[in-house]
């Protein structure tokens, strides 16, 4: 060996410290990094660890039931199944899609495109299967096809009161009607727990006791003021009217005169809440509250009642009706017949426009406006249904001199059928306005009940003697006036017809009308007040023909069944 | 004194007492820590590893009594055997996770590159201790060639981590052997210039991806990180959520719920970080530092040049493995399959490490004896 060993020793003596220094430097860098990671960034990574290790598990709850006033079920959530696929496990997508397309009522191209998404482990095929669909698909026992429990909203009545009830979309969300308006109360609060999950995530496993979450809270049950039997009657009668006169739209409302409760409410066109997608969207509208009209003569009794209440006239005051043509304030008013002198009562019985306009003239604008406002016109009735229209009642400051003539005839003022019928219950009930309402009580799962809130300051609008006189006058309308067809045996109906021209392109149309009739029974001690509004009837345009007979029939049956006691 | 020792063939006292004992002491502590953490991951792995420790103990005992100078003298033969084994692996090796690194010997998988590492260290020790004029640049060609051959064979397996380990071994050994520092500097600069070429032609796609991921980890979006850096992300979360004091042995959620991949082998350091926190990782790193220092001190005390070089080579090897493995768990190095010496689960890795330690003890024990 040419190399002396001491050279070597010298070499390692010089260089080992350098090597050690490099090593220690590396170690220090590593420890520095560890300090940064474990002490400085600890909170950040702690959060990340929690985020991936704890998963929220939703605990489903039960949506509340909607019932009528007697407790009959109108809408209920029933356990159901939704069908999903794990495309990675499906062996033969084309064949499976073919098999399922008939059973699930979906196109096989749609199904196979879903089954072919191999990057997915979960994909819905169809939500909320019908009972027999579930049974049949389950019997096939195809690999990669599974079911998940998902409750389904069922409406036993189908089209029955569909506009009031509305419907529920996916994910338990109420989209229309009571379902939408009381979404919060009905849906309750799904609970959740925290679950410790497996790193592979495909398999959820609980290793330790679950962390506390929130227990599910079931939805509240809602009791409506609707009466199953009366609603059925209203549905039938409106259907009859619609069949006969083929209108664009129609609606019927039955109110309890004493309380303002809505006993029945229905509209046409209608839909089945169970299969709401199959009907066009315009059929979902609850015409009874969403559409406001200039309803015409039905407004006359309200103005006349106000005049009588203010002692400006009494029912026997004679007013000159100028033989059917009256020129005033730059415009000419017309009647259907040439009337001479009419009493106030007769103005209503024969529905004289000229007479009514003169009644309006007696009033100051501000006073009439206040009256109408107190009757709930121009404001939403707050009936707790979505999409309600407030109608149009101009502020008296903007009234022109001719507005005073128009309003008693039912022009220049628009209202929903619901607003009108509840104003009418005031006139023939006890003279006190009660806002209409449709929810009797909400019963929470813990047993707490929430009853309807009653406004504390109920205002008397019409004195009692006016109310009593008005009942008799309106009875006369039916007996010998414009609504003779409502005078059916055993009903004792009183009421007022309305035949209004629709406004088309800014003008009153001569061919398109809104016919309506507001009736109440029995006239001597009214229990029920009912309105039917028919939009663009074909064949006849008179409220006395198109609406009155059906209102009378609803009232007759209601009194017959309930004995005047709802 | 020399005369007295010349008569002895081997002195167990020289091997075990002194620096040898210190080395063994630190290794035993690290092995104890290793067993507790492997047990924390899975009890069945821990009992298997215990059996391996017993086997490794006897293997190191044999290596200790075996005269290392015979190994040095026959190092060309061993090197040749190693190269043959590497070719054999490439031909008939076991395929795991897309690379051929193992030969099946009965029930166990033998990683041939482990044998190659020892053979290369031995051969380098022989060449460098005989080399006459280390001041000349030309004299470095042979050592480089000796390393380059196994290095490229292993890179083709592919096993980037192991092949990289050869580089510091070579540099440490020629550095200690007294090569001209100017030459070393030139070589390092040339190597750095060659890196991009190796990167684009020598590495497979997934290896390139890992390097890229390591270099650009701070500029990647969350989604990319999730898709490509799952190992790294989970390892960082394990370390970071461990905090200063850790979650406690066996309480690590990253570990126990299977979020951390390869947690009993390549990523066991992240489990330490999670369950023992900053304290645990620092203590473990200090233990390694003490171990390597003790080994270098041992090299210091040895007079035989080839023995010294062997120890330096082994230290370089273990330091490299330790640094690369721990750095990769904290995102300071690209992810490679290098195990943490004495900590990671795995029989051959442990056998190989203990074998190296046995050779060191043999060097210490044969210090006074002459080789005939």
Can you give a write-up of this model?
Chain A has 566 residues and is α+β, with helices and mostly antiparallel strands. Helices cover 36% and strands 20% of the residues of chain A. Chain A has helices spanning 5-40, 42-53, 93-104, 108-115, 131-140, 162-165, 177-181, 183-187, 228-245, 287-290, 300-309, 344-350, 353-362, 365-374, 403-406, 417-428, 464-480, 543-546, 548-562; strands at 54-59, 66-67, 73-78, 81-85, 123-126, 145-149, 152-154, 191-196, 211-214, 221-224, 249-256, 262-268, 318-320, 325-328, 331-334, 341-343, 439-443, 449-451, 494-504, 507-521, 528-535. Chain A starts with a helix and ends with a helix. A 3-stranded antiparallel sheet of chain B has the order 1-2-3. Chain B is built from 17 helices and 3 strands. Mean pLDDT of chain B is 83; it is low at 1-7. By secondary structure, chain B is mostly helical.
Instruction: Tell me the overall shape of chain A.
Output: elongated
Total number of domains of chain B? 1
Q: End-to-end span of chain B in angstroms? A: 19 Å
**How much strand of chain B?**
under 5%
Secondary structure: helix percent of chain B: over 70%
Whole-number average pLDDT of chain B? 83
> Would you give the CATH topology of the largest domain in chain A?
Beta-lactamase
Instruction: Note the main sheet of chain A.
Output: 6 strands, mixed
């Amino acid at each position: 060996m040419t190399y002396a060993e001491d050279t070597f020793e010298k070499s390692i003596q010089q260089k080992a410290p350098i090597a050690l220094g490099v090593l220690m430097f590396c170690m220090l860098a590593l420890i520095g990094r560890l300090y940064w990671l474990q002490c400085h960034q600890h909170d950040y990574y702690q959060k990340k660890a929690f985020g991936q290790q704890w998963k929220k598990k939703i605990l489903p709850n039960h949506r509340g039931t909607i019932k009528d006033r007697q407790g009959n079920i109108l809408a209920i959530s029933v356990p159901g199944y939704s069908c999903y696929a794990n495309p990675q496990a499906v062996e033969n997508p084309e064949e499976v899609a073919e098999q399922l397309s008939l059973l699930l009522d979906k196109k096989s191209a749609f199904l196979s495109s879903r089954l072919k998404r191999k990057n997915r482990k979960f994909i819905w095929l169809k939500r909320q299967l019908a009972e027999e669909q579930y049974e049949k698909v389950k019997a096939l026992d195809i690999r990669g096809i599974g079911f998940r429990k998902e409750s389904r909203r069922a409406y036993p009545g189908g089209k029955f009161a569909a506009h009031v009830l509305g419907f529920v979309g996916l994910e338990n969300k109420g989209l229309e009607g009571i379902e939408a308006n009381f979404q919060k109360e009905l849906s309750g609060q799904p609970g959740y727990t925290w679950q410790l999950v497996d790193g592979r995530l495909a398999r959820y496993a609980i290793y330790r006791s679950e962390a506390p979450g929130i227990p599910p809270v079931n939805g509240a049950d809602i009791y409506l003021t609707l009466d199953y039997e009366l609603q059925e009657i209203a549905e039938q009668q409106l259907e009859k009217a619609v069949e006969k006169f083929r209108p664009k739209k129609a609606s019927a409302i039955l109110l309890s005169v004493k309380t303002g409760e809505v006993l029945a409410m229905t509209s046409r066109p209608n839909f089945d809440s169970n299969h709401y997608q199959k009907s066009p969207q315009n059929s979902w509208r609850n015409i009874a509250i969403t559409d406001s009209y200039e309803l015409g003569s039905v407004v006359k009794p309200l103005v006349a009642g106000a005049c009588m209440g203010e002692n400006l006239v009494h029912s026997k005051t004679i007013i000159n009706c100028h033989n059917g043509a009256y020129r005033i304030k730059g415009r000419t008013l017309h009647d259907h017949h040439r009337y001479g002198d009419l009493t106030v009562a007769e103005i209503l019985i024969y529905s004289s426009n000229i007479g009514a306009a003169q009644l309006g003239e007696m009033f100051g604008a501000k006073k009439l406006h206040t009256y109408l406002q107190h009757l709930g016109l121009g404001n939403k009735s707050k009936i707790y249904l979505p999409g309600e229209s407030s109608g149009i009642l101009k502020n008296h400051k903007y009234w022109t001199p001719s507005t005073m003539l128009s309003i008693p005839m039912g022009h220049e003022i628009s209202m929903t059928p619901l607003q009108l019928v509840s104003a009418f219950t005031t006139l023939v009930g006890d003279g006190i306005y009660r806002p209409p309402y449709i929810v009797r009580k909400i019963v929470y799962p813990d047993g707490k009940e929430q009853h309807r809130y009653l406004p504390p300051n109920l205002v008397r609008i019409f004195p009692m003697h006016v109310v009593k006189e008005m009942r008799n006058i309106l009875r006369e309308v039916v007996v010998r006036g414009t609504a003779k067809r409502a005078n059916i045996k055993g009903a004792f109906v009183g009421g007022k017809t309305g035949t209004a021209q629709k406004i088309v392109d800014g003008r009153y149309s001569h061919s398109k009308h809104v016919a309506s009739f507001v009736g109440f029974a029995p006239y001597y001690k009214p229990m029920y007040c009912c309105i039917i509004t028919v939009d663009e009837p074909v064949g006849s345009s008179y409220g006395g023909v198109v609406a009155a007979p059906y209102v009378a029939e609803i009232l007759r049956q209601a009194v017959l069944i309930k004995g005047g006691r709802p | 004194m020399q005369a007295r020792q010349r008569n002895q063939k081997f002195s167990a006292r020289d091997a075990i007492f002194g620096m040898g004992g210190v080395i063994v002491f630190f290794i035993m502590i690290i092995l104890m820590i290793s067993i507790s953490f492997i047990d924390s991951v899975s009890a069945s792995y821990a009992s298997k590893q215990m059996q391996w420790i017993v086997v490794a103990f006897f293997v190191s005992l044999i290596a200790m009594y075996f005269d290392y100078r015979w190994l040095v003298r026959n190092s060309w033969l061993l090197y040749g055997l190693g190269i043959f084994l590497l070719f054999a692996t490439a031909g008939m090796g076991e395929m795991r996770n897309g690379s051929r690194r193992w030969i099946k010997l009965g029930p166990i998988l033998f990683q041939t590159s482990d044998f190659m590492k020892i053979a290369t260290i031995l051969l380098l020790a022989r060449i460098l201790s005989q080399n006459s004029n280390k001041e000349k640049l030309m004299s470095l060609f042979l050592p480089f060639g000796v390393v380059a051959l196994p290095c490229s064979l292993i890179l083709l397996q592919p096993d980037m981590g192991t092949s990289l380990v050869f580089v510091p071994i070579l540099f440490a050994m020629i550095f200690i052997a007294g090569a001209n520092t100017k030459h070393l500097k030139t070589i390092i600069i040339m190597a750095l210039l060659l890196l991009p070429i190796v990167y684009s032609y020598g590495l497979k796609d997934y290896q390139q991806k890992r390097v890229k991921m390591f270099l650009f980890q701070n500029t990647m979006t969350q989604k990319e990180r999730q898709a490509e850096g799952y190992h790294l992300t989970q390892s960082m979360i394990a370390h970071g959520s461990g905090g200063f004091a850790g979650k406690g042995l066996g309480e690590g959620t990253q570990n126990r719920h299977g979020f951390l991949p390869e947690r009993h082998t390549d990523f066991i350091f992240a489990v330490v970080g999670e369950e023992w926190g900053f304290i645990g990782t620092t203590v473990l790193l200090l233990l390694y530092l003490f171990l390597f220092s003790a080994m270098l001190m041992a090299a210091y005390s040895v007079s035989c040049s080839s023995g010294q070089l062997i120890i330096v080579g082994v230290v370089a090897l273990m330091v490299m493995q330790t640094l690369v493995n721990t750095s990769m768990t904290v995102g300071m190095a690209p992810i490679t399959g290098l195990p943490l010496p004495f900590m990671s689960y795995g029989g051959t890795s442990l056998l190989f490490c203990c074998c190296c330690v046995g050779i060191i003890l043999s060097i210490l024990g044969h210090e006074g004896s002459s080789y005939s």
